[in-house]
Amino acid sequence: MLVKERSFRREDLSFFMTQPTRHEIATRKILLELPGMDAVTRATSIFTGADGQPLPLEIYQPIGVTIPSPAALIVEGYPDPGFAKFLGCRFMEMAWSVSLARLIAASGLAAITYSNREPVADLDALLDHLAANGPALGVDSGRLALWATSGHGPLALSRLPRAACAVLSNPFACDLAPATEVAHAAATFRFVAPAASWPIDRPLFIVRSGRDEMPGLNASLDRFVTHALAQNAPLTLVNHPEAPHSFELFHDSEMTRLLLRQALAFLKSSLAP
């Protein structure tokens, strides 16, 4: 079902061709497996980045589906060249990204991963590409969710007007004046934090780890949740009291697996026709 726009040329992707040793965290898979994950097919294509140059795109399709599927887009809030230099691979190549995409596809939705050079502009370019080419790519772009964690959260939240819903796992969200935790974290860890004017009618599923060790994350997240609830936003919050940051990689427990299943069920319910 996926239509390749054209084959990759080596010179197109020379920016990404270095292969340093992967950081250990880039090899960790999500601590949940679903039947059929290994049988999920992954199709590779490209989209045109904001600078006019091609960027890689992969779509994981649910098994046995022959019509365009609702999809979850796994958002990257860091510039990929710097990310790859630090972790030894692109964001879309991390075992976390691949295993999450396979989980989403095994649950019955398409999953989308991609690379970027400029996080904000390239995500907008990808969303435009999906809007224009969704059926040919096997994606129902009218039923699109965003999934983001940690420093990827602010970018996902800022683009929520272009999606139907979002899963935010241990996210930095956005600063509510006079707080500055998110801006400080963005400057420290070098993720993007565009201004967010998020629509309160979009359902959110938020996972909070009670023992998150990222400076200022839970303080900013708790403030965001309080504000969202005051606006009567459709928000589901699940708290994992004993878990650290990146609970899905480091807290091997039935609670971790339960929360991941709940997040997947939220996506299916929110994207249902």
Proportion of residues in helical segments: 25-40%
Computed Rg:
17 Å
Uncertain spans: 1-18
Summing up helix and strand content along with how strands pair, one would put the structural category as alpha/beta
Q: Tell me the series of helices and strands, N- to C-terminal.
A: EEEHHEHEHEHEHEHH
Q: What sort of overall outline do the alpha carbons produce when their principal axes are compared?
A: globular
Number of strands: 8
Strand order of the largest sheet: 1-2-4-3-5-6-7-8
Helical element count? 8
Strand content: 15-25%
Write down the overall mean pLDDT. 91
**Main sheet specs:** 8 strands, mixed
Distance between the first and last residues' Cα: 21 Å
Short description:
With 273 residues, the protein is α/β, with parallel strands linked by helices.
Description:
33% of the residues lie in helices and 21% in strands. By secondary structure, it is of the alpha/beta class. It has an eight-stranded mixed β-sheet, sandwiched between helices. The longest helix has 19 residues, at 119-137. The radius of gyration is 17 Å and the shape is globular.
